[in-house]
Amino acid sequence: MMGEITLVQNVTVLGATGSIGRSTLDVIGRHPELYRVFALTANRQVELLYQQCLEYKPQYAVMADENSAAELAQLIAASALKTDVLAGLAGLQEVSGADEADVVMAAIVGAAGLLPTLSAIESGKRVLLANKESLVMSGALFMDAVKRSGTCLLPIDSEHNAIYQCLPANYMEGMARVGIRRILLTASGGPFRTTPIDQLTKVTPDQACAHPNWPMGRKISVDSATMMNKGLEAIEACWLFGLTPDQVEVVIHPQSIVHSMVDYVDGSVLAQLGNPDMRTPIAYGLAWPERIDSGVSPLDLVKLGRLDFATPDYGRFPCLKLAMDAVSAGGTAMAILNGVNEVAVSAFLAGQIGFLDIARLNEAVLNDVDSRPASDLDLVLAADADARHSANKLLASGLFSKGSV
Ligand code: NAD
Ligand code: MG
Fold it and tell me: Which CATH architecture has domain 330-405?
């Protein structure tokens, strides 16, 4: 029943031109009586953001890159649109925290999403969190900001959305208190789940980005191939749901139909299932506690026939182990992990290093940069900068250049 949603919600979409951003606009476009686009943002994709402005007529469009903002402003001035164009971090923060915005979809990729997402949280918006890197980096500070502002934070990452749907309302009282044994975090295993390990040295960025079940942005696709994505998600689950690392178990499930599960002490396991399409968690986040149509086709379990599960192999996926170690280490270790991983993935996508070098570079930087207590945002941002600096220094040394394995 949708009867109770009456007011039109103004939505800011951070990262509108990306995979999650486009899926969000698709869901919004199905419900013009419920949602209006307040602001759209992107980094450099001027032409696509302009097309989205023509279709959704936002009050604001923001480009993080200043030159791109100037180009977009010219296109908009020559059109009949009344959209105001803003630029840079200040523009992103303005549309995230603006009084007129009710909901913010946080779908910028990487650490660049942290400050705009925090602006949305601090001003008490409903925040739909896709940008897992921001939470991974700043965990406790991020969750403190959520508590302080009383904002409604809804996880959009499909696994966390599934867990959220399977948890009792009072889950924050503690897992033992509400009778939960553990969380089963499912993972597809990515495109190289069964590729002979000796062939992984030569896999290309396009092969790494060819995810078997989910079409996604290139950074998260590479993270899925290394399973760093699942490591980041284990950390994300710990912060979101108040879990310790040993309460999160990663299970490989190649079909990506069971999006994750909650295991209760009485032996009940609750799971959320659905076709692998991000419009389901996005629609859930937009409409919660109601339900709306997302455009996703109904699940046909009979046609699917089988669901498989297996244990991940740390030998094949060393990045998963690095992430689990970082969450146990605590403090700024997670910001360091995230920072170096962003550099490593960019270097791999640029053809500068091989696929297996991603884990090697991540490990080298985690050994090189000391973890400290993550007691304020400046320390987190400094850890991120130190990790990037160390990673770039190692890349420049040639130790990780392609073919050095
Ligand atoms: P994407 O690469 O397709 O899109 C990224 C968006 O961020 C684009 O709009 C881009 O313009 C913007 N952006 C990039 N760098 C920026 C910067 N420096 N400043 C401001 N904006 C910038 O990525 P995606 O696949 O849509 O993923 C977005 C986020 O959602 C990531 O954190 C990812 O981990 C998470 N996520 C994605 C999926 C998915 O299915 N794609 C699923 C779960 C979680
Ligand atoms: Mg996910």
Answer: Orthogonal Bundle (1.10)
How far, in whole angstroms, is CA 356 from its chain's centroid? 23
What is the DSSP-derived secondary structure letter of residue 310? B
Cα distance between residue 16 and residue 228, in whole Å: 24
Ligand 1 atom nearest the C-alpha of 44 is 11
Instruction: Please tell me the distance from the alpha carbon of residue 323 to that of residue 70, in angstroms, as a whole number.
Output: 39
Predicted model pTM: 0.97
Using an 8 Å Cβ cutoff, are 40 and 20 in contact? no
Residues 6 or more apart whose Cβ sits within 8 Å of residue 262: 163, 166, 167, 180, 183, 184, 269, 270, 271
Q: What is the pLDDT of residues 251-261, one digit of tens each?
A: 999 999 999 99
Q: Residue 119 has which token pair?
A: 């602006």
- Give the separation between CA 254 and CA 251, rounded to whole angstroms: 10
- Ranges for all domains in the chain classified under CATH 1.10.1740.10: 330-405
Ligand 1: lining residues by beta carbon, under 6 Å:
15-21, 42-43, 45, 64, 107-109, 112, 130-133, 157, 214, 216-217, 219-220, 278
- What pLDDT, on the 0 to 100 scale, is given for residue 1? 45
Ligand 1 atom nearest the C-alpha of 214 is 40
Angular region, 23: left φ>0, alpha ψ -120 to 50, beta rest: alpha
3-state secondary structure of 189: coil
- Give start-end residues of each CATH 3.40.50.720 domain in the chain: 9-156
Reading the block at residue 109, the tokens are: 């990729």
Interval 71-92 mean pLDDT? 98
Q: Which of 108, 135, 230 to mutate to test the pocket of ligand 1 (most atoms within 8 A of CB)?
A: 108
Quick one: tokens of 191? 């495109």
> pLDDT, tens digit, for every residue of 68-81?
999 999 999 999 99
Is 98:41 a contact under the CB 8 Å cutoff? no
> ω before 289 within 30° of 0 (cis)?
yes
Query: Which ligand 1 atom minimizes the distance to the CA of 157?
Result: 43
- Count CA within 13 A, CB hemisphere, residue 114: 21
The fold of 9-156 is Rossmann fold (3.40.50)
Q: Let me know: does 207 contact 200? Beta carbons within 8 Å.
A: no
Give the pLDDT confidence of 230-250 residue by residue, as tens digits: 999 999 999 999 999 999 999
CA angle (156 as vertex; 85, 38 as ends), nearest 5: 25
| Residue pointed to by tokens 């007129």 | 100
